[in-house]
Amino acid sequence: MQTFLLIYRYLIVFVLVFISCNQAAKKELPIYNPADVNPKLVAKSVRHINSNHKVADFKLQNQNGTTVTQKDYENKVYVVDFFFTRCTSICPIMTTNMAKIQDEFMSSDTFMLLSISVTPEFDTVEILKAYADKKGVQDAKWNVTTGVKKHIYELARKSYFAVSEQGDGGLQDFIHTPNFILVDSEKQIRGIYDGTDKGAVSQVITDIKILLNKRNP
Q: Using CA atoms, how far apart are residues 156 and 148, in angstroms rounded to an integer?
């Protein structure tokens, strides 16, 4: 009798897990266009766009001195954050949480991470390499990058909707944001999350799985 009850309980658990996974696979995530997002997060020049927004092409340099472009993320689901190595407030928390996401999807060849420095004048390749090694960054999974400041700030404001401050990417311009941005394999934004919040990080992990399940049903 006890054996029967044990088998019955395992069967119930299996069915519940199956139903939960099936429901997650069917869930649809929103697609974010500039007009759908808090206007403070979007550059004024693109706020009116309400359809077909895709992340712009980019050209950055990673922790190994390798040029990174949109081509490296082609057909990938990925999470982006904006940070700087000298930050002692939110950035260490964000990087720790990006590492958690990395660990969760280490075996997936269709998921990656992208961190972009907002102080490229300080964050050289050498500094990024030391930072990446210290934080457990896996080169094949996660690019920690620097580049031209104006290009980076345009990406933050016009492509990824990451920051609330407006600016021109000039010498005095500075952005500081906790946001994680989830991008699908079609270069569309599917979620914006607080990268310092444990609950939000759990949610982005769940949402990544939804996108990956749709790619690999």
A: 13
